[in-house]
Amino acid sequence: MMLAYRLVRLIETHSDALATGLLQRVQTSEFTRDYRKVPAEDLKTTVYEIYRHLGDWLMGKSDFDIELRYRDVGARRAEQGVPLSQLVCSSTGRFCMRPSATRMNLRGVCWRGRARPA
Fold it and tell me: Where are the beta strands (DSSP E) in 39-109?
């Protein structure tokens, strides 16, 4: 438990650098091309707020609070022209961290940056 607490505090402490790094990966990944339509400051602020207050998100927020937050983010991204598949892929960070891989599998949700065939 102490290790988890220290990890959360470390993420919160370095939230600005982590948000900047994720922003760069999302904006340059072939799997999240439509994120280039999202203003950089909007994306960075959204990610920063989650990282900066990770402890609150994990310990203090209800499922309802989290659902409201992610519905808001999802609606905003849809208005900005970001497909749901890219929102899911960017939320996991997996596609952004390994853009050179030829095949990605996110529990059957995404495959090569698009919906996985049935």
Answer: none
Six-digit token string for 91:
């939320």
Tens of pLDDT, residue by residue over 55-71, are 888 888 888 998 898 89
End-to-end CA distance of the chain: 40
Query: What is the DSSP pairing of strand 110-111 with strand 114-115?
Result: antiparallel
Q: What is the mean pLDDT of the chain?
A: 79
Rounded CA-CA distance 77/73 in Å is 6
Determine the Cα–Cα distance for residues 58 and 62; give it in Å rounded to an integer. 9
pTM: 0.68
Residues 6 or more apart whose Cβ sits within 8 Å of residue 82: 34, 35, 37, 38
pLDDT in tens, 4-13: 888 888 889 9
Domain limits of the chain? Answer: 2-115
